[in-house]
Specification:
heterodimer; A: 10 strands; B: Aconitase, domain 3; five-stranded parallel sheet; four-stranded parallel sheet; 13 strands
């Protein structure tokens, strides 16, 4: 078990299974098909992301360096939350990017879904965490991985 | 009330407190939280004349967005500035679809008319305002250097920042609308002098001008959201920011933004801030990435082809993501005509659609090249090819494109301009 300390972007506590991408998370490409076809499991449709392609994202602790791609990104994340297909939380090794931040904030203010979001967890976090590990978000940006 | 960190004036605080309505308070809270996340010191006025929104499609599964729009309109909230918006998803007249695909489009985009009504009520600039290249002269949403704008659409934002010298963060859909509603955006990132400094130097060391879409892809994948300062391209492009160079930068920028997350690049001796400030734009602690011919080949070879049958004969070709300029349209028509002649063909062998903005399309219809399209069997449309491709029927089709953005988000296969010309004009 290891603890990492980051910055709280959206507060909240949760426990979930880790789903990890070492490369940038393309929000539109990843959620595109699940939004189109109302796939509540949110199967990742980003063909360029070998870490996540065809894996279920809903309810997972999504661990990534940052998000990339289209500026629909934040809105797409907001829609995924509203339709009940969102990840359990978002964990960033880097500082959160503007699109992911928008998605997390839009979801927080305009839906009833809580999407705890922590950034600045550091490169060690992304090196340590693996698919299927347990993630627990504690107070003040502490993330427990075991 | 949200415990804000940035400096807000009395009016802004009163909006946040809900004194001008609960919905406007939520709009303000979204923008202030967004700014606080990135250490914005204050909100600054949007000084550009027009906005640009990324969401143009009435996709049935995007209900939360239309519900939010309805909530805004019912609260009497409109954009303070007129705006343009990304391209429409469907064009039955000019893009081959067939009965089944049309049925799928009807189901998928069942909210299109309703959403377009919402956009008009919210402040759509013109019926012709549906394009990802709103900055073309024919439409006229062209921010001036130094102006602060509230835009989304990754390819438009990177163009506005880099080629026009406007100031805009890579805003998400809805955030850009909220900025236009408030007439204010948080001051951080690419709005600040410091945020516009380059942390990467890209050294282009190729004998010939690289394919814009592959070069952009290489840069985007390497620098992600950082600002690159690109050297070596001026050798091929010259120092004049003319239409040809702007078109090249439009396509290169779109690839940097979709294959990575670039919101601004500087091009030595060419883009406005690089011309004015030169290497002083580069941070001392920068990293360097050298791009030569072999690196471009490596990048292009890394693109996974999503077709089931890799040797399938292409059934369709899209050229124009981002939308083509008037000059690019002319060039494509000339080049297709020449290549058909070489292959001793009269019509293209792969159904091909050139995409451009409605206002450029209107202008092109007056052009002598326009009549050649029908003769050559080439279609011309205002749609977003990406939206066209995103359904199970089209996804199964072997579609080819010269767009790295379209490749990234769909199953279409990327070819260079030269390869595309050969594919669509030779006999299969």
């Amino acid at each position: 078990m290891k603890e990492f300390k980051g910055r709280v972007v959206i507060p909240g506590k949760t426990k979930a299974e880790a789903l990890v991408t070492k490369s940038g998370f393309n929000t539109l490409a990843s959620f595109q098909k699940s939004l189109m076809f109302n796939d509540k499991k949110a199967t990742c449709s980003d063909q360029n992301n070998q870490d996540l392609y065809k894996k279920k994202m809903a309810g997972k602790a999504l661990c990534m360096p940052q998000t990339i791609g289209s500026t629909t990104g934040g809105m797409v994340l907001y829609c995924a939350c509203d339709m009940g297909a969102s990840p359990a939380c978002l964990l960033f090794s880097n500082t959160i990017d503007s699109l992911a931040a928008a998605g997390a904030i839009l979801s927080d203010i305009w839906t009833d879904i809580n999407l705890p979001t922590v950034d600045n967890l550091g490169e060690d976090f992304l090196t340590y965490v693996k698919d299927g590990m347990n993630i627990e978000i504690m107070d003040e940006g502490v993330v427990r991985v075991y | 009330m949200y415990d804000f960190k940035m400096n807000l004036n009395e009016d802004e605080i009163s909006i946040l407190k809900g004194e001008k309505g609960e919905t406007l308070a939520k709009v303000m809270k979204t923008i202030v939280m967004y700014g606080d996340t990135f250490g914005a010191d204050r909100l600054v006025p949007v000084s550009g004349e027009y906005g640009h929104l990324v969401t143009s499609f009435g996709l049935s599964m995007m209900k939360p967005v239309y519900n939010l729009m309805r909530e805004l309109l019912e609260a009497g909230i409109c954009s303070k500035q007129k705006f343009t918006v990304d391209p429409r998803p469907v064009d039955k007249e000019n893009v081959p679809a067939g009965f089944l695909k049309n049925l799928v489009f009807k189901y998928m985009y069942s909210k299109q008319n309703d959403y377009e009504d919402q956009l008009k009520k919210m402040g759509l600039m013109t019926e012709d305002g549906f394009t990802c290249t709103c900055y073309m002269e024919e439409l006229g949403n062209i921010p001036k250097k130094g102006e602060v704008i509230s835009w989304a659409e990754s390819s438009a934002v990177v163009y506005a920042n880099s080629v026009l010298g406007a100031r805009c963060n890579r805003n998400s859909g809805l955030i850009e609308l909220f900025g236009s509603i408030l007439g204010k955006v948080p001051n951080f990132g690419l709005l600040t002098d410091e945020g516009r400094k380059a942390t990467w130097v890209i050294e282009v060391k190729t004998d010939e001008l690289p394919e814009a879409q592959v070069l952009g892809s290489a840069i985007g994948m390497k620098v992600m959201e950082n600002v690159p300062y690109i050297k070596g391209l001026e050798k091929h492009l010259g120092n004049d920011l003319n239409n040809r160079v702007r078109d090249y930068l439009k396509d290169m920028g779109a690839a940097t933004a979709s294959n990575g997350a670039v919101g601004l690049y500087h091009l030595e001796g060419i883009t406005p801030e690089a011309v004015e400030q030169g290497e002083s734009l580069i941070k001392e602690t920068h990293q360097t990435y050298v791009i030569d011919e072999s690196e471009l080949i490596r990048i292009k070879d890394s693109y996974k082809v999503m077709w089931k049958d890799l040797s399938a004969r292409p059934e369709m070709c899209f050229i124009g993501c981002p939308h083509l300029s008037l000059q690019q349209l002319e060039e494509w028509v000339e080049n297709i005509e020449k290549r058909l002649h070489i292959h001793k063909n009269n019509r293209v062998s792969v159904p091909t659609v050139l995409t451009t903005s409605p206002s450029v399309l209107k202008e092109f219809k007056k052009n002598p090249h326009f009549s050649k399209l029908e003769t050559m069997g080439v279609g011309l449309s205002y749609i977003c090819p990406l939206m066209y491709m995103n359904n199970p029927l089209c996804a199964k089709m072997p579609v080819i494109t010269n767009s790295n953005k379209l490749r990234t988000y769909t199953t279409s296969r990327y070819y260079t301009d030269h390869e595309i010309l050969d594919q669509i004009t030779r006999r299969h």
